[in-house]
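Researcher: Here's the sequence for the chain we discussed earlier.
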Amino acid sequence: MSKEQTFSTILSANPYRKDFYAGTLNSIIRIASPSFSNEQYAISFLNTKGFISALIGISKNVADDDVYDALENKVYEELALDMAVEYQFQYIEAINNTTDSERFYNVFIVDPLTLEQEFASTVEAIKYIDQIVPVPLLLKSLYAKEILESGSVHGFIYFQENDAFFTIYKDQEFIYTKSLKYSLKQMHERFCELLGEPIDLMNFENILSTQGLNPTNAEYQKNFFKLFGEIFLHINDVITYAKRAFEIKQFDAIYLGTAVGSISGLDEYAQTFLGLKAHPLAFDYGFRTGETVVDQIHQLMHLYARLGSDERYECNFTIFHRPPPFAKRDSGKLILVIASSLAAALLYPCTYWALSYVEEFHYALMNQEYEKVHIEKMTREATINLKMANKNAAQALLDKEKTAYKQKQDTLIQVNDKKVNYPMKAKIAADFTRSFNQYRVKLQSMGYSEENNSTLKTFNFMLTASKTQDITALLKHLTDTKRDRYDFGLQLISYDSNSSSYLSELKAVLK
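Model: Thanks. This is the structure I predict for it:
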């Protein structure tokens, strides 16, 4: 069941920019001062700098109940994590990476201190957060709602104020994510260095969102192209690594977006620089907004919260749970126990006398019923005992007949096996001898054996030849012509200096 069916409002929180959007039905509105409410479902996200992601493989023999413990051990071991820190981690199965012997999982690891520090102000305002999702997993909703087609390989590049990330989805499933070097703040700092003079961050973001990569100021335009040349050189290295590591031949599309909205000319620049088909990461989610530009991450959070549990990744890092119902709180339980005790104390005297009279009447009725049932019970027990004696006698006779039948059956099976399956040794030896002569191989000796309690019948031929090629050619001939009747095995070919010949033992197991 989706959260839209359970709660009247969905509240999305960006802990890094400290902004909030409330969603009801198909509308999203920015909330300046959010507050606690039991009727709202609160969702937030972790940017890629806030967690470690890794692809971890474990044996398929590990039971589902033991997957968490097995992954925890490998995470600490393979990532060399500090054993003194109790990291939180969540995982999703990497379906596309499964092998014959191992299952692979995308594991997300978070330091609890990171959660406490980054979400402190958010929790102070709304008291709880129902779900905290790693930001790349929010993109799963694009496929669940069929905004993007399945069966494709898509790359997503998104620039936020404090972070930037590159994420890959293949066949609707998360594959890989990587934090990029240039957030919007880092872009601003680098742009100021290239320009040689400081400009305000808000002014920088406004130029990008309104004028794009071709601003009216020629000096700005020149430095924008230098800046994004450095950015996409870094992104190209990341894409090259990802294609090699995950055996991706080609991306069907790359989607680019920023927290300040679409940047004019960015997708054309990316397509030219990377040689990949690029589009703006700006989808119509069906939400009515009161603003011209709403951060795509907020819209993705609202879309993700509306998905059913079978449509999204169940990966939740929240440690800020909503207060339990009154009856489940310790104080509530104490109050309810006291109230129940007082009610019971007042009702006890009257209830005791009433129940005593009821029980005496009930006892008299049950005693009469017992006498009738007891007589019927004794009669039926006698009948059952007689029938059980007859049954045991019949069972003994049946067991005797079964034993006799089994003995006769085993005898007939042995006779049939000897008659049908017993190999004609002389005929088989003559047949093999013709093949030996054909390939100039001599037979020194021949043996035959049958394993106890098995149907395996094995012929052992000690062979000699002047050349090893004659023996190997013989084996190839036998394998090609007699594989439907025999399984062949050739022991190590050795050289006998006394006879100047090569010796080997050929085994032929009759199928």
